[in-house]
Amino acid sequence: MIVVAHLSDPHLGAHDGETVESLVADVSAAAPALTVVTGDWTMRARVSEFELARALLVRLPRPVLTVPGNHDLPLVSPLRLLRPYDRFRTWICDDLEPIARVPGLTAVGLQSMPRWRWKDGRVTRRQVAAVAGAFGAAPRGDLRLVALHHPPFGRGLAGRGPLLRAGADLLLAGHTHIPDVRTVGGTVVVVAGTSASHRTRGVPRSWSRISVDAGMVTVVERFSAGSGWRTGRLISVPLSATAS
């Protein structure tokens, strides 16, 4: 069995401090093989917020695979045009499209936030080719995972069609602040809710514990409750035979 912890949208700078403390303990208790954070570490990409993000990052169970979200680029600043990802690279991860390999799992991160878009995302053909190449080089039988900020449904991600045909078994995203699990084009898609932000959208703060075993993906949604966390929905979805 492979266990992945999936967090998104902590929005440090608009966060609940008590939740951050209990979040680290709750994620650590799951003993994940990989921790994935699908962006929006900060609220407005300020240095002070990235300092908080770094302090959280180093406490999460390792290895950690992470990508930037739309809030991790400066909103109104010359940096938006000249060096939009510099602060993310400095404080979080120098590689905007990292690859993580643990036994039984090959995971690829995608940078889905172009500097010329304010909120919606985009995946290019070059990125899709890189994903397919990483999966082609993966050991036979590995679970193939893609992580990016924007979910591959609705209108928020251009280029999602080719991405969904790149061979991923599991795709992790955030951005919406609302946890979700569905199968899209043969790929199991898990969207994590906001993990620490005050900017909730009708559901409590949450993160998702994902386990994959015997051809099934089981997602346990963990919701903040007082000074701790409780188990919410438990959703099981079969891996698609065409993806795996």
UniProtKB/TrEMBL annotation:
Entry protein name: 3',5'-cyclic AMP phosphodiesterase CpdA
Family statement: Belongs to the cyclic nucleotide phosphodiesterase class-III family.
Gene Ontology terms, MF aspect: hydrolase activity; metal ion binding
Keywords: Hydrolase, Iron, Metal-binding
Source domain of life: Bacteria
Originating organism: Actinoplanes regularis
Sequence ranges assigned to domain Calcineurin-like phosphoesterase in this UniProt record: 3-179
Lineage: Bacteria, Bacillati, Actinomycetota, Actinomycetes, Micromonosporales
UniProt-listed InterPro entries: Calcineurin-like_PHP, CNP_phosphodiesterase-III, Metallo-depent_PP-like
Entry's transmembrane regions: none
